[in-house]
Design goal:
globular; single chain; seven-stranded mixed β-sheet; 10 helices; four-stranded antiparallel β-sheet; 29% strand; binds cytidine-5'-monophosphate; 268 residues; alpha+beta
Length: 268
């Protein structure tokens, strides 16, 4: 059984205070995009994965779902690791959905999303699928409407550590709803200029201070005339909003020619 595991971008990512459990309270508009990994699960006596990662979220997801069962997990990776696009989390979400079927467990999507919270903060939103307003440490997700957006993803080739970026970021006042209000009204209007103006990511300064290459990509995409530019998750991938698929392909080709990994994508 094969499932596409879609990457996500964070159109907003607001970080509030540190919680007693060591995670930050956050609010984020999470939107899936067309770049995907492909996850395949097959029946087997033992549990195995060919990802090669020591902290394989696919194996973690399978064990959280049912530690007593086996399966062979194969992932075709296209989403860069450590890139803020939720690749590992998307793969884990796909494993939960696929093994729920393969093992005949009969969990609902909502139950799988709840189980996914034990695997990683981004997993519940990616199990739910579609655009989501994420809150809590990531476990709360409410579906929202997002118009079809043409984006260019651009990765400077550095891996960020999510824990390290969070540890140096400056949290904001949780009473402030202006960022989210602006994005909700912009998405509702469908106006690209307004959507771009509402982009926000509280982890950007921290990620750029640790990896200045990220600032270079942001500047380069801005100079190329993108409508808006922002970083996804804890980086290192940056995304640019452009006016159509043709412009996305052109800008992505320009960034590739500059030596970056880049993909034209569309929101789903
Ligand atoms: O949940 P996940 O494994 O993706 O989180 C990785 C790290 O990112 C956590 O160990 C924590 O340091 C940081 N984090 C956080 N607050 C969140 C999500 C992640 O501080 N809401």
């Amino acid at each position: 059984m094969k499932i596409d595991a879609f990457a996500k971008v964070n159109l907003t990512l607001e970080v509030f205070g540190l919680r007693p459990d060591g995670y930050h309270a956050l609010r984020s508009v999470v939107v899936p995009v067309s770049l995907c990994d492909t996850v395949e699960v097959e029946p087997a006596d033992e549990l195995s994965s060919d990802s090669g990662y020591s902290d394989d979220l696919c194996l973690k997801a399978a064990k959280v779902l049912d530690p007593s069962r086996g399966a062979r997990i194969h992932v075709v990776k296209r989403i860069p690791a450590g890139g803020g696009l939720g690749g590992g989390s998307a793969d884990a979400a796909a494993v939960l959905i696929a093994l729920n079927e393969l093992w005949g467990l009969g969990h609902s999507r909502a139950e799988l999303a709840e189980i996914g919270a034990q695997v990683g903060s981004d997993v519940p939103a990616l199990v739910t699928g579609g655009s989501v307003l994420m809150e809590g440490r990531g476990e709360k997700g409410a579906p929202i409407e997002c118009p079809r957006l043409n984006l260019v993803l651009c990765n400077p080739g550095v891996h960020t550590s999510t824990a390290e970026v969070y540890s140096v970021c400056k949290a904001r006042d949780c009473a402030d709803t202006s960022v989210n209000d602006a994005m909700m009204s912009a998405l509702h209007s469908g106006d690209l200029e307004k959507i771009a103006a509402a982009f926000a990511n509280d982890l950007t300064a921290a990620a750029c201070s640790l990896h200045p290459e990220i600032s270079e990509v942001i500047s380069s995409l801005r100079a190329a005339g993108a409508i808006g530019v922002s970083m996804s998750g804890s980086g290192s991938t940056v995304f640019a909003l452009v006016s159509g698929a043709e412009r996305a392909r052109e800008l992505s080709a320009e960034m590739t020619a500059k030596g970056y990994a880049s993909w034209p994508v569309v929101t789903r």
